[in-house]
Amino acid sequence: MGYSRKLAWRNYLVEGLLILSSLLIILPLLIMIFGSFMTSTEVLKFSLRLPDKWMFSNYAEVFREGGLGRAFLNGMLITGISSILNILTSSAAAFILVRRETKLANFLYMFFFMGLIAPMSTITTIRVVQWMGFYGSITSVIFIYASLNAAFSVFLYSGFIRSIPKALDEVAFLEGANTFDVFFKIVTPLIIPVNATVAIMVFMSVWNDITIPLYFLTDSSDWTMPLSVYNFYGKYSRDWNLIFADLVLTSLPVFILYLFCQKYIVSGLTAGAVKG
Amino acid sequence: MKISKKLYSYYLIWPALLIYSIFFVLPALIGLFYSFTDWRLDRETIKFIGWDNFERIFTDKTLLLAMKNTCIFAVVTVLGKNLLGIALAVGLNMKLKSKNFLRAIFYSPSILSVLVISIVFTPMLRSEGTINRIFDAVGLHSLSQAWLTNPSIVIWTVAAVSIWQHTGFQMAIYLAGLQSISKDYYEAATIDGAGSWRSFVSITLPLLLPAININLMLTLIGGLKVFSEVFVLTGGGPGNASQVVGTIILRSFGEGSWGLGTAVNTLLFAAVTIIAIPLLIFMRRKEVSE
């Protein structure tokens, strides 16, 4: 009796402390969200308060001035295609690497794994893309993102595919199926949840990134949302209400994705990081 | 019955292997070669110059400072994100009424772009900004700082912003780890008279090792590769006070001194590999022996 009362008391204390510290996280985000609805003079205090008058027009203005429609479509195109390319190629590669179990397969697995650790060589990547003749294009950025995420995806897929019994493949092979059939008709349907996890992880990291567009997208009409925001931030450094509106708009796609796909993020982290 | 491994044809590996090799591995190998040359934008010919680039890196004050800052950032963020991440995860693994809500709040900044968070913090970190005003309001004037313009603390400020944003991600991995620990262990420990601290040290920490392992790797590698936070918050300034390896590479690229830039990159590559691989092997071994 005394013990459980002590426990309850401890829980209240922990809960109070955690709620207090969560304010540290919420406050800056609310300053951004409320600030995006203020006038340009009101926002300059950067303190937490509701706007005197809700300026929804800030959003319309940002959308016009910041060229965000174009940047949104560019971002969707780059993020969408590089995620799909990454999912298709990495899951197929992981399938063979896991099933082969030869020295070469082990070596190739480590070869991919190195990509999780090693930093990208930006300057020479630009050279390679120049030699291939598509430096500055959206295509080059799509391939670079697919290659940057290959290591992480192969790592995650391998963990899952290892848990799929080989017996399923055997039956199919006996009935005359080839590798291609087995992968697409048997393995692919079983790894749909992993595909979701990889898709979300890749989508978030690609959508939020500014480094690759900064180096590789030479034409501002190809820019993605965060890079357009960065440019806007430099140009409109006085109008913090517009800058905040711009930041909220950039964050909206990942925020919506997060709301709908929470369970895949958590299950992905559990399977990939903790069990893998 | 055993099926032949040959049935799993290697051609399914080729697309991933080609993309990864051409756009990631090949540039790394080429970079290794160019590190030893005087490759420049404004020069037609490329000459092999041995270790000159590396000698310059170790004698140039700015480049040395950039490496020191990268190390400070990496160490501070590894400690901050993991200690706070474990604390949050342990707290939010208890039976609290608001735990789902709080988990979502703490996780939320890590889904946003570093760019977004860095821009939001820029006005708040000014001398007359929100953070100093809060310190003044509660009577802690002495804590007020020029967070982004004082050369001796600026890299710590950038690290703090990164900890603020990403600790929630580490927390999520630790929570996943905690939930895989059976409650039976704690019950047995309580019956044996172990207090909460004792249970934490003898049960939680050892069984959390896989999660600790992956989090240390992720935060360390991410810390050494830091770029966007510094680029947006300070641009490497004031002066060169917050330059890191990532911003130096951008600067060498802009100046056209590509040989030097690739040498800096090669050094980063070597540093990350030398630190990460033994850590990885050591941690794996510890996990197995548990």
UniProtKB/TrEMBL annotation, chain A:
Keywords: Cell membrane, Membrane, Transmembrane, Transmembrane helix, Transport. Residues 72-261 form the ABC transmembrane type-1 domain. One of its GO terms (biological process) is transmembrane transport. One of its GO terms (cellular component) is plasma membrane. The keyword rRNA-binding does not apply. It is found in: Cell membrane. It is a multi-pass membrane protein. Gene3D superfamilies: MetI-like. The chain crosses the membrane at residues 12-38, 71-98, 107-128, 134-161, 182-207, 240-260. It holds the Pfam family BPD_transp_1. Belongs to the binding-protein-dependent transport system permease family. This is Sugar ABC transporter permease.
UniProtKB/TrEMBL annotation, chain B:
InterPro entries: ABC_transporter_permease, MetI-like, MetI-like_sf. The keyword Hydrolase does not apply. One of its GO terms (biological process) is transmembrane transport. CDD domains: TM_PBP2. It comes from the Bacteria. Gene3D superfamilies: MetI-like. It is a multi-pass membrane protein. Keywords: Cell membrane, Membrane, Transmembrane, Transmembrane helix, Transport. It is found in: Cell membrane. Residues 67-281 form the ABC transmembrane type-1 domain. One of its GO terms (cellular component) is plasma membrane. It holds the Pfam family BPD_transp_1. The chain crosses the membrane at residues 12-34, 72-92, 104-125, 153-178, 199-221, 260-282. PANTHER family: ABC TRANSPORTER PERMEASE PROTEIN (PTHR30193), INNER MEMBRANE ABC TRANSPORTER PERMEASE PROTEIN YCJO (PTHR30193:SF37). Belongs to the binding-protein-dependent transport system permease family. This is Sugar ABC transporter permease. The lineage of its organism: Bacteria, Bacillati, Bacillota, Bacilli, Bacillales.
